[in-house]
Prior knowledge:
By secondary structure, the protein is of the alpha/beta class.
Amino acid sequence: MTDAIVVLNAGSSSLKFSVFAVEDGEINLRLRGQLEGLFTSPKFVGKTADGKVLGEHAWPEGHQLGHEGAMAHLTAFLDAHTEGLEIKAIGHRVVHGGVEFAEPVRLDPATLKRLEAFVPLAPLHQPNNLLPIRLLLESGTKATQVACFDTAFHRDQPLIAQMYALPHEMTAAGIRRYGFHGLSYEFIASVMAQHDERAAKGRTVVFHLGNGASMCAVENGRSVATTMGFTAVDGLPMGTRCGSVDPGVLLYLMDQRGMDARAIEKLIYHRSGLLGMSGISSDCRALEESDERNAKLALDHFCYRAARELASLAATMGGVDAVVFTAGIGENSPTVRAKILEQAAWLGIDLDVEANNCRGFAKISTAASKVNAWVIPTNEELMIARHAWRVVHG
Length: 394
Ligand code: ADP
């Protein structure tokens, strides 16, 4: 039997999974897939690592499969397609580890309870992340479950970077910057030396630009500052999230438009960002293809804000040796990368236009550039698998 690791990423309406085999000390992807539309029109697809479909299923419109139904379907799929594999570890993506968890942790009922205490910090994500953990603990699974946190990579940041200028008592009570996308940044930090040894030991700014978007200053492999804060709505504009806004705007909306917390939550998480600015779509591709003035303005503002944050993060490290683009937009949009880096020429970044336009090219700066620019695909699932395996095997 070959040891295997299952990685689960449970969102509000989807459950993504990967299965990795541990072969000669290497962690290799074997299967992946997802269940989506858990409460609307559920769909399942399971594939091999090279994309061959092994299983597909669609439930009727309106069927409420939910997370429990999804876990049951996934368990049956895994039973049927993991012959020769023994699942030793199950790694879960968990959005919040609070101040307490700076490392992945082995899960038992007591630890799960501690993680439930962070639900008020991430009410839209944490409960979904924890549900499969509880179901698997109740099912008496033999595999060791491990929680890997989006916040953990940032816990080493100096206090000065983690605090807000609020009364000290509030910082002590956990009202502080946590930062997110940590598993993505940690993965990039872990492969940086393969691409750019100088930057791996030096100062890098990573752009994680997907539906959710943030940036991180990484010095000698460690996070020193990041754009997201107490919640994942802070920092850059995103697909539907506004990023940083003057808190005075929110007070104004409460006073003058009678908006309550739920209405503001909807506004800042679901109706803003690229969608709100353009009035067209939250999808970067759709905006790039549109001739509408507001589509262009939305993308220009997105890039302007990213370029401003680059300067801010570089300042925390006293300079920058490399920048890295990753995630859906960062990996796939030459337009966005060029728009950001053209505004960063003053930092000594000289974009190689041809390399930038050539998909899959790792280095997108010229040989003369003082700061190297890279496109490096992220792999949060592999990061979780590595962590889970380390927790199980020391
Ligand atoms: P999530 O945060 O949901 O994981 P992703 O990392 O998958 O998001 O990124 C999704 C975003 O990537 C969308 O805005 C999508 O338009 C964008 N994207 C994907 N492919 C391209 C492309 N070829 N050109 C421009 N944008 C792209």
